[in-house]
TrEMBL record:
Keywords: Glycosidase, Hydrolase. Signal peptide: none annotated. It comes from Tractidigestivibacter montrealensis. The keyword Hydrolase applies. Pfam families: UDG (PF03167). It is an enzyme of class 3 (hydrolase). This is DNA-deoxyinosine glycosylase. Residues 22-172 form the Uracil-DNA glycosylase-like domain.
Length: 178
C-alpha cells in the first residue's frame, strides 16, 4: 500500500468542479470581470477571490481609493457601486486544487446572460488561463473580445500590489465610463 500512497501523491487528475456561485451584476454594470473558476477557498467562503492571500479585493479597493471590503456583502456592494460585473469563464471543469494549469474538460459559462442584461462595454479576464479559455470558448460565440489582466493570485508573486493596481487601471477607467 505504501507505493500506492506515493502514486496518489503524483496523481494530478483533479476533481470535477461545478461553478457554485451566481454572477454579480445589475442593469448598470459596464465591465465584466472573469476569473477562471472559484478556488477551493472561494467555494468554501461562497464568494469570488475568497483566498485571503489573493490580492483582487485589495486591487479593487485601491482603484477607487476605498477601504478593502471585509465581507461578501461589502465586496458585492463595491462591484455594483462601480458598475463591475463579476463571474468566471468556466461553468465546470476538472481541476487539481486551485491550479489553473491542471484544468481539463472546460465547459464555459453563458456570459450572454450578462451581456444581454447589462450595458457591458468591456470584458476583462484575470490571469492568462482565464484569458486563453475566454478567447477559445466564449469570444467566438459572443463576439466580444477581452482584455487580459495579470492574476491577483498568490501564485503570481512576481507582481507587487502597486504593479497590479497600475495594470488594472484600464478596468477602473472603463467602469467609470472614461
Amino acid at each position: 500500500m505504501a507505493s500506492n500512497t506515493g502514486k496518489d501523491a503524483h496523481n494530478h487528475a483533479g476533481q470535477l468542479v461545478i461553478h457554485p456561485l451566481d454572477p454579480i451584476f445589475d442593469e448598470n454594470s459596464r465591465v465584466l470581470v472573469l476569473g477562471t473558476i472559484p478556488s477551493p477557498k472561494s467555494r468554501e467562503v461562497r464568494f469570488y477571490y475568497g483566498n485571503p492571500q489573493n490580492r483582487f479585493w485589495r486591487v479593487m479597493a485601491a482603484l477607487w481609493e476605498e477601504g478593502v471590503p471585509g465581507t461578501n456583502d461589502a465586496r458585492r456592494d463595491l462591484c455594483l457601486r462601480h458598475h463591475v460585473a463579476l463571474w468566471d469563464v468556466l461553468q465546470r471543469c476538472t481541476i487539481a486544487g486551485a491550479s489553473d494549469a491542471s484544468i481539463r474538460d472546460p465547459v464555459p459559462n453563458d456570459v450572454g446572460r450578462i451581456l444581454s442584461a447589462a450595458p457591458i462595454t468591456h470584458v476583462f479576464c484575470t490571469g492568462g488561463t482565464a484569458t486563453r479559455l475566454y478567447q477559445r470558448l466564449i469570444e467566438p460565440v459572443c463576439g466580444v473580445p477581452c482584455t487580459g489582466l495579470p492574476s491577483t493570485s498568490p501564485a503570481n508573486a512576481r507582481m507587487r500590489l502597486d504593479d497590479l493596481v497600475a495594470a488594472y487601471e484600464p478596468l477602473r477607467r472603463a467602469a467609470d465610463g472614461e
